[in-house]
Amino acid sequence: MTEELGTTQILLDLLDLDGAEQARTDEDIFIGKTPRQSRTRVFGGQVLAQSVIAGSRTVPEGRAIHSMHGYFLRPGDPTQNITFGVQRLRDGRSFSARRVHAYQNGVPILSMIASFQEPAKGLDHSDAVPFDVPAPETLLKTADIIGHFDHPVAHEWAYERPFDMRHITEPVYLPGYEKNEAMAAVWMRTTAPMPDDPVLHRAALAYASDYMLLEPVIRRHGISWIHRGLSIASLDHAMWWHREFRADEWLLYVLRSPSASSARGLGTGQIFNAAGELVATVAQEGMVRLPEFDADLE
Q1: Disulfide engineering: 162 pairs with which of 11, 40, 229, 252, CB 3.0-4.6 Å?
Q2: Angle, nearest 10°, between helix axes 44-56 and 198-209?
Q3: Tell me: the pLDDT tens digits for 102-160?
Q4: How would you classify residue 276: left for phi > 0, otherwise alpha for psi between -120 and 50, otherwise beta?
Q5: 273 φ, ψ to 5°?
Q6: Which residues form the Acyl-CoA thioesterase 2 C-terminal domain (predicted)?
Q7: 243/279 Cα distance (integer angstroms)
Q8: Rg of the Cα trace of the chain?
Q9: Cα atoms in the Cβ-side hemisphere of radius 13 Å centred on 189
Q10: Which of the following is catalytic: 210, 248, 257, 270?
Q11: Which of 246, 251, 271, 250 is nearest to 195 (CA)?
């Protein structure tokens, strides 16, 4: 198995939740696994993606997730499985609503409400790609940028992510980048082809949407990911899927941060396919703490 096939298979494995009808109380119960990793907490995108799969397993066939709103309540333990409880809130003529809780040790680590819809015809417009971008094949892979560093996180980002990330704006892995602006852009796709199931592609995009959403917050202030004492954590996550797409084809992720205050930063993102069509919109607020402001923290 090649390295690219291996990382995509890891993504597909974690999206393959276990579940059984006899495990149902007032919730449908599914079990999700976490791959081995150097992290001390579960990657938020993993829990989002698995929650999308769990909710999708309970809706009538043909209803795709079109929006979700979730709160990260506790850090997940990567050494334990995650239990997903799905409550069937409503099934209407064309929409379904679900509440999904992700549990470890009997308490929720994520609480999400999601909506699903049957395909329908209607008004159609979208934003355009906001600026000219280079082709992804002309850009460096993450491994080319940080793959030579002898650090477990650098190795994970360079070689173990299931997505190939090609930075358009200068990455902020290290200090010393040129522009301190509250925006970033990257091409991304899975490292190997995925099955044709559109549910998997929507879940995979939820996974990848959590990679960089808070980067524009720290970029605006000239801070890198290795800034000493930086503490950053996702608080909530909202996502809207607009059009069909494939996660194994190049997608353009354009990110901005309209505000940061009170040790919190807001990141927003638009995801376009290679034809320039807007396929998803994302927003996330995160905690961003720096030792320079310790005196102001309780």
Answers
A1: 11
A2: 150
A3: 999 999 999 999 999 999 999 999 999 999 999 999 999 988 888 888 887 778 877 88
A4: left
A5: -85, 175
A6: 183-287
A7: 5
A8: 19
A9: 17
A10: 210
A11: 246
Q: Is the pLDDT of residue 297 over 50?
A: no
132 in active site: no
234: annotated active-site residue:
yes
- Please check whether residue 222 is in contact with residue 292, taking contact to mean a CB–CB distance below 8 angstroms: no
Structure tokens at 136: 């992804």
Closest CA to 217 of 207, 231, 238: 231
Q: Domain-by-domain residue ranges, the chain?
A: 3-296
Q: Which of 46, 50, 209, 234 is catalytic?
A: 234
* Residue 78, helix vs strand vs coil: coil
Per-residue pLDDT band for 30 (boundaries 50, 70, 90) equals: very high
Written as six digits, the tokens of 13 are 């494995």
The conformation of residue 178, written as its DSSP 8-state character, comes to: S
Strand positions, DSSP E, the chain: 18-19, 28-32, 64-72, 82-91, 95-104, 107-117, 163-167, 183-190, 231-234, 236-241, 251-261, 264-273, 278-289
**Rounded average pLDDT over 264-271:** 98
> Catalytic site residue 210?
yes
